[in-house]
Amino acid sequence: GEALESVFAQSYREFEVVVVNDGSPDTEELERVLAPFAKRIVYRRQPNGGPSSARNTAIREARGEYVAFLDSDDCWHPDFLASQIDFLRPHPELDLVYADATFFGEGEEAGETFMGRHPSAGPVTLESLLRGSCVVLTSSVVARRAALLDAGLFDESLRFHEDFELWLRLLHQGGRIGYQERVLGRRRAHPQSLTARRGDFLRGQLDVLERTKKSFALSPDEVAVIESRSELIQAELALVAGKERLLAGEYRLARGEFQRAAEHFRTPKLRGALLLLRLWPGLLRRVVQLRERTATGAA
Q: What is the domain extent for residue 127?
């Protein structure tokens, strides 16, 4: 309800709202929440196809020149649409603009801004997106609908980083992206396990990078950025695997994963973990278990 309330509180009034129920297991509760808005929204139900499928359904259903995305647990400031559209209209060369948002909720990022954690610096190019020096927050995006259709919409085979892949594809096909450093929304920060879903998230990112390397005609610098970032992700995956092995009591396998990660992350913290793993593995396991419980808010 809070997300939709923020939409209907917009100072810019010329919009339609498309809500896609992507096979939600809580459809009854969702439709109860939507009931007060029923006459003001276009509601579509479909079998679960993932975020790409839901967004593509909404884009095809939309009738306006611009489209904006808002996840159900995020919200916009009242001037979000007005500010983003006012930015796009005098810049016909841009296909998409994104902005900043404040984290709220129970996660460790609460109170910080998205761009404080993920700064955007300089122009948005294929290389800057690959390098991570520009990061697009999807719930802050306003884009020209025609540009997204021309780019081929979101890849429905992807369950992670489908938005990142589309922005890369849009740029590679000649599209242009801009941003405002204004805080125009709120993004919910969730408490989560240090390892929960992290592996899937990283493997999804690696998949997008590998697809990009294979399918795009890239410059040597862009290829080098992909290879460097892929090495970093592989090291992060080794850390995730090491934690999983450690929590399972598989200390020898955990040590192997942490040693692979240490080839990239030469930090005192990781060296200390390897030392504890060799001398007092049970102690290290208890420390990590405690951190996991703390991160998820468990007692």
A: 2-189
Residues 112 and 69 in one domain: yes
Site of tokens 């930090």: 267
d(CA 87, CA 103): 23
Band the pLDDT of 156: cuts 50, 70, 90.
very high
Q: Which residues of 49-71 are buried (b: 16+ CB within 10 A; e: fewer)?
A: ebbbbbbbbbbeebeeebbbbbe
Angle between helices 220-247 and 251-262 (to 10 degrees): 160
The model's pTM = 0.91
* Residues in contact with 119: Cβ distance below 8 Å, sequence separation at least 6, in sequence order: 133, 135
C-alpha–C-alpha distance, residues 103 and 139, integer Å = 12
Overall domain count for the chain? 2
Phi, psi of 17 (to 5 degrees): -120, 125
Spatial CB neighbours of 2, under 8 Å, sequence gap ≥ 6: 75
Helices (H) then strands (E): counts for the chain: 13, 7
pLDDT score of 196: 57
